[in-house]
Specification:
- With 125 residues, the chain is mainly α.
- The protein has one domain (21-123): Glycoprotein, Type 4 Pilin.
- The chain has one helix and three strands.
- It has one helix at 2-48, and strands at 90-92, 103-106, 122-123.
- The protein has a three-stranded antiparallel beta sheet, with helices on one face.
- The longest helix is centred in the first third of the chain and has 47 residues, at 2-48.
- It starts with a helix and ends with a strand.
- The mean pLDDT is 87.
Length: 125
């Protein structure tokens, strides 16, 4: 009985420490994915002399665009993965935060634009 009580006390003190770790890991993964995709978009820009259009989106990093296909040197990413919360990464050209280039972001835990705390968007800004 004493052993069960001790295990319960240990579990009650240790488990809360790991709850926040999962969220931190997802945020770190999203930041790494965004940096990887941002680099791929910049390589696309070097080859194509333009950023992907809003209509093309990030899909043009995997498959050749219908226009200027002769300049395309991709694929620039092997596979476009969803963010750690299972949602697609968002792309906007021209960007609101980067008017001369593009915005790239994950909507985070709340899967909606904006947010605070754990629901804050994670982007290339």
């Amino acid at each position: 009985m004493v052993v069960v009580i001790i295990l319960g006390v240990l579990a009650a003190t240790i488990i809360p420490q790991f709850v926040g770790t999962t969220q931190e890991a997802k945020v770190s993964a999203a930041k790494a994915h965004i940096a990887e995709i941002e680099s791929a978009v910049e390589r696309f820009y070097v080859h194509m002399d333009r950023y992907p259009t809003q209509d093309e989106g990030l899909a043009v990093l995997e498959k050749s665009p219908t226009t200027d296909a002769s300049k395309w040197r991709g694929p620039y990413v092997k596979k476009l993965r969803p963010d750690p919360w299972g949602q697609p990464y968002q792309y906007r050209r021209p960007g609101v935060r980067h008017a001369n280039s593009f915005d790239l972001w994950s909507r985070g835990t709340d899967t909606a634009d904006g947010g605070e705390g754990d629901g804050t968007d994670i982007g290339n800004w």
